[in-house]
Design a protein that fits this description.
The complex is a heterodimer of chains A (361) and B (341). With 361 residues, chain A is an alpha/beta fold. Chain A is built from 15 helices and eleven strands. Chain A has a domain at 69-166 and 253-295: HypD, alpha/beta domain 2 (Rossmann fold, 3-Layer(aba) Sandwich). Chain A is 36% helix and 17% strand. The longest helix of chain B has 17 residues, at 111-127. Classes of the chains: A alpha/beta (361), B alpha+beta (341). At the A-B interface, helix 1 and helix 2 of A face helix 7 and strand 13 of B.
Chain lengths: 361, 341
């Protein structure tokens, strides 16, 4: 059966692996990416097999589901218990809140629906008189969609609980945390199609480490890693685009304007990292009528996120691999997850468990 | 409540005249040729009879079916139930002797839909020359069941039956066609996704294809990769035989539209159901012959050799990826959920 052309040609992959071996220094190198889709591609395609032993690539805070704080889950549970229809992405339903996950809230009889986009949530709102709340999580890829919907005259029974986050700010904070020891970033291709390259430079210029935007096909990723290693070899550190077929320098200006029109930056809490200034969004004053926190009078209080024995905080900050956690694959599996990195299907632990992780045959 | 003649009422399951009428008008006409033993479906007795075969082993299987949506691209719950049970028999190497059909219907269900479902069940049996010999109908109140649920039991005869534990090192792994079609077609058909695709389910009885290869022999293990897809089927086969199944990803047939939807939703086509396919583990001596015979049958046109059996990691499935990486392909965990971005 004929397959569409894919950037997964094994001969070229081998050539890139040879280049990587030549470019890599003899000392240990830690490269971090911040995207569940990158981890999925790396693990699913078995790409770590193409890297020299001293070059390691880890997922940082790349799973929007995993970094969503307990307080936000609690808020949504409270809204669902108040009788609203809550619409959210599939993974979110399994993340533990202080009392309940959304899945458990649903089995108590609350109306929680899995949608693929905010547009579906609006569609549901138009068909009912009940309150419909969209739980808006995600990085810069999903934020413009939320903005576009709020600018498009949504029905009055529709509101959003904003939990959107900004990736470049988190990348900068990670470098300042003790023990992260990151030598290079593989920056996320799809976030970069929106942002362009400037926000990385703005947040990360002072650190002088390589930041290379990469796509998601096997050859895209190996190529980006080769460019990171070339910068390390040359002793330089700047923002470089290894995914020009999708990412332009300036990004998607229309999407940036949408975000700017509807949201303003604010300090938000990241599970595993803590509060980061200007790393999230709140609705501008003109849009507060769509703010579910106000409509349902939610007080934001961060619950206890410490789980005994769980190393999610270290995994989310690239200070540990999933396999370093004593609970990984024993007490903590996707069927009965202990920490959020095992819940979200973009979470490093979940991906390693499902696709074999570092354990290379 | 007003009586609506187009819909199922509780009386249709009450065993009286209403039920007799439902069966006579909407069920039995689809099974006119159901004759196998001395007492048949049309006799409406308490049971039916089958003359004992003179050789071989009797194989019995049962399956309950619920599916959403009930009518999906490429089939419906009736075809799914018939094919599912016939296929369970087929991958045991069993010629189907007879099936049962038990239906539980929600009050207010549209009667013409019952007709459609029963007809497609019957048509699937006819294609595999299998009679229906007994059945049952119950009605539950509104909200007590979601539309319709079907249970079928199948009896078949095999000489001998083929299990799923017989893989030995050196064997060859064959699939009879493209993987993931049913699961992805249903995913696309779920209304909340609002997707427009040309995907159709592969639901079909594979007995007419399987029977052509049984005389060749050398089939050490066989399964139909339904729920959990190819990944679940092969993990079970590897684990029961304590062998390693080595898969070559580029050789696994996957339709471009299935791959596309799979990439979009973040759900692997190797982990979702097939309803008209088999995976076979065969002796290398007969692999090419079996592959060729499968490909001659319309249902096996896309059959491929996708790997072999080794022994390096007993009980595990190892995948050599398109790009040349290697990883374990493990047992899927449960119902896959689409990812965010």
């Amino acid at each position: 059966m004929a397959r569409p052309f894919q950037l997964s040609d094994p001969v070229r992959a081998r050539q890139l692996a040879d280049a990587i071996a030549i470019l890599a220094p003899p000392t240990p190198v830690k490269i971090v990416h911040v995207c569940g889709t990158h981890e999925m591609a790396i693990t699913q395609h078995g790409l770590r097999r193409f890297l020299p032993e001293n070059v390691e690539i880890l997922e940082g805070p790349g799973c929007p589901v995993c970094v969503t704080p307990t307080a936000d889950i609690d808020a949504v549970v409270q809204i669902a218990e108040a009788g609203a229809i809550v619409c959210t992405f599939g993974d979110m339903t399994r993340v533990p809140g202080t009392r309940l996950t959304l899945e458990q809230t649903r089995s108590k009889g609350c109306d929680i629906r899995v949608v693929l986009s905010i547009a579906e949530a609006v569609h549901i709102a138009r068909e009912t008189d009940r309150e419909v709340v969209f739980f808006a999580v995600g990085f810069e890829t999903t934020t413009p969609m939320t903005a576009a919907v709020l600018l498009d005259d949504p029905p009055s029974n529709f509101s959003v609980l904003v939990s959107h986050k900004k990736i470049p700010e988190a990348m900068a904070v990670l470098l300042n945390l003790p023990g992260t020891n990151i030598q290079g970033y593989l920056a996320p291709g799809h976030v970069s199609t929106i942002l362009g390259l400037a926000p990385y430079a703005k947040q990360l210029d002072t650190f002088k480490i390589p930041i290379v935007v990469g796509g998601f096909e096997p050859l895209d990723i190996l190529y980006a890693i080769a460019l990171i290693l070339r910068q390390i070899r040359d002793g330089v550190g700047f923002v470089e685009n290894a995914f020009p077929r999708a990412v332009s320098d300036e990004g998607n200006l229309a999407a940036q304007i949408l975000i700017e029109t509807v949201f303003e930056s604010t300090e938000v809490h990241w599970r595993g990292i803590g509060a980061i200034p200007d790393s999230g969004y709140r609705l501008r004053d003109e849009f507060t009528q769509f703010d579910a926190r106000q409509r349902f009078q939610i007080e934001g209080e961060t619950g206890d996120e410490h789980i005994p024995g769980c190393r999610c905080a270290d995994v989310l900050t690239a200070r540990a691999t999933p396999a370093d956690c004593p609970l990984f694959g024993t007490r903590c599996t996707p069927l009965s997850p202990v920490g959020p990195c095992m819940v979200g299907s973009e979470g490093a632990c979940s991906i390693w468990f499902r696709y074999g992780g570092r354990e290379l045959p | 409540m007003t009586q609506n003649n187009d819909r199922i009422s509780p009386l249709h399951g009450a065993g009286g005249a209403m039920m007799g009428q439902l069966l006579a008008e909407h069920v039995l006409p689809h099974f006119v040729s159901s004759q196998v033993g001395r007492i048949n479906l049309s006799d409406m007795d308490d049971g039916a009879t089958i003359a004992l075969p003179s050789a071989g082993e009797l194989v019995m299987t049962t399956d309950s079916h619920v599916v959403k949506p009930i009518f999906f691209p490429g089939g419906d719950i009736g075809k799914l139930a018939a094919a599912g049970t016939l296929n369970d028999l087929a991958v045991m190497g069993a010629r189907p002797l007879a099936l049962s059909l038990a239906v539980i219907i929600e009050e207010d269900f549209i009667i013409s839909d019952v007709d459609r479902i029963v007809k497609s069940f019957a048509d699937t049996l006819i294609g595999s020359e299998t009679p229906l010999i007994c059945g049952d109908t119950k009605v539950m109140g509104r909200g007590e069941i979601d539309g319709i649920a079907i249970n079928t039991t199948g009896l078949g005869i095999a000489d001998p039956a083929i299990g799923d534990a017989g893989a030995v090192a050196g064997d060859v792994v064959i699939v009879t066609g493209s993987m993931g079609d049913h699961g992805m077609a249903l995913m696309a058909a779920r209304e909340e996704f609002h997707l427009e695709t040309e995907l159709i389910s592969d639901v079909a009885s594979i007995w007419p294809m399987i029977r052509t290869i049984l005389p060749v022999g050398g089939i050490h293990a066989m399964k139909d990769p339904t729920r959990g897809g190819l990944a679940a089927a092969l993990n079970e086969m590897a684990s029961k035989s304590k062998t390693t199944i080595e898969l070559n990803q580029p050789a696994i047939p996957i339709r471009p539209e299935v791959q596309g939807l799979s990439d979009m939703l973040g759900i692997s086509p190797l982990e979702v159901a097939n309803e008209g396919k088999a995976v076979l583990i065969v002796s290398p001596a007969v692999a090419d012959q079996i592959l060729e015979m499968l490909r001659k049958h319309p249902l096996g046109h896309d059959a491929e050799i996708i790997g072999h059996v080794g022994g390096e990691y007993p009980g595990r499935v190892v995948l050599t990826t398109d790009v040349g990486g290697r990883r374990f392909l493990d047992m899927p965990l449960g119902d896959p959920v689409p990812r965010i971005c």
